[in-house]
Amino acid sequence: MTRFDVVVVGAGPAGSAAALAAARTGASVLLVERGPFPGAKNMHGGVIHGGVLERLIPRWWERAPVQRWVTRRTTMVMTGTQSLSLDFRSAGWTRPPYNGATAYRSEFDSWLAGEAERAGARLVCSTTVTGLLRAPDGTVRGVTTDREGGDIEAGVVIACDGVNSLLTGEAGLSAARDPGNFALGAKEVLALSREEIDERFGLSGREGAEIEMLGCTAGIPGGAFLHTYLDTVAVGVVVSVDGLSASGVRPEELIARVKAHPSIAPYLRGAELKEYSAHLAPQGGYDALARLAGPGLLVCGDAAGLCLAAGPWLEGVNFAIGSGMAAGEVAARSVRAGDVSTAALAAYRNRLEASFVLSDHRRWREVPRLLRSQAVHEKYPRLVCDAAERVLTVPAPRPRKGLSSILRETAAANGTRLRDLVRDGWQILRSFT
Length: 433
Hints:
- This is Electron transfer flavoprotein-quinone oxidoreductase.
- It comes from Marinactinospora thermotolerans DSM 45154.
- One of its GO terms (molecular function) is oxidoreductase activity.
- Belongs to the ETF-QO/FixC family.
- By secondary structure, this protein is of the alpha/beta class.
- The protein folds into 3 domains: about 5-65 and about 105-175 and about 290-355, FAD/NAD(P)-binding domain, CATH 3.50.50; about 180-280, D-Amino Acid Oxidase, Chain A, domain 2; about 370-430, no CATH class.
- The protein is built from 16 helices and 18 strands.
- Strands 1, 2, 6, 7, 8, 9, 15 and 16 form an 8-stranded mixed sheet that branches.
- Helix 1 links the parallel strand 1 (about 1-10) and strand 2 (about 30).
- The longest helix is centred in the C-terminal third of the chain and has 21 residues, at about 315-335.
- It is globular.
């Protein structure tokens, strides 16, 4: 039986960050990946944000396999035939340390795992962890694998094995498996020439665009996205599992609706489908997190439920990296001190509470619940778009009406009470202040 100070299960961003952080302390580290290489089975519908990555790998942008730097971000509220957009660009996002980047997960995850290897971690792929090894007192002391004689002892095991974490469930640390706490992300990768992407999105050089959409998922709680790469674009949806199941609509149908929308179709005209993928993601927020530590075990990334779905913030990779980095450092320190009890490993949660990882989740803990309402995904987008259309339509030969009158009339026509809109808007606003 082989022994390591720290065994990390899963070579996604959380696992590789944990392995890298632990290896830098001098601990012996094994990083176990089920796929043939890191990123082989991972799907990503978002943007990689560099703030936390800069703390882990200084000047990461000089080495990471980035496709484009996101310099344009658009938030779009839609109905079937309308859209209202808030479009923001910043010259500050075109230079280091950069605000965000698009990258293929197969490339990015392999690069990050390689950084962990360079720090001294050992990477083993095509190996499935099948369970936990325990001491007589219940302390986790390693993992079992699908390899013959492949049991591995560890001072601490770090579970980074994704949203359906086997290890978190076996250890009794999982939150309640409410379908409302999970979303299905589905996306298509479409080929377009670099010149076409630059022209259609108003980009140049390595500039990239990110579009987040609300109101385009047939009333199912969720949203859609469109991101640019060098010579491809990704378009997809992220919708609640229970809402999707109740609707009877397939995710590829939702993507087709997004692609056909008059505000999106011009971006994608003539694009060729290269890839389709789908993946579960946590969306329950702070109140649906797993317990983060048990004796000899820490939980990170999607396995812990660390994914934020709060309006224009759709983030997961930065929380994965932040939690993995903290877990690796705490695990190595606890092994070195000879104390891997739950009390000793509680330092991990304390670290996350003091950082953006849990402080952001706590601040926006009510937002996931509010954003799952039908009003937010169907009534409010129509109200906003109808009101905007009335305000911007020249009403000749009649005199213009005031904004308050337009809002009242539009709300009545859409079956929406303005007081409900104000109440929900105030609750969301309070979460962001």
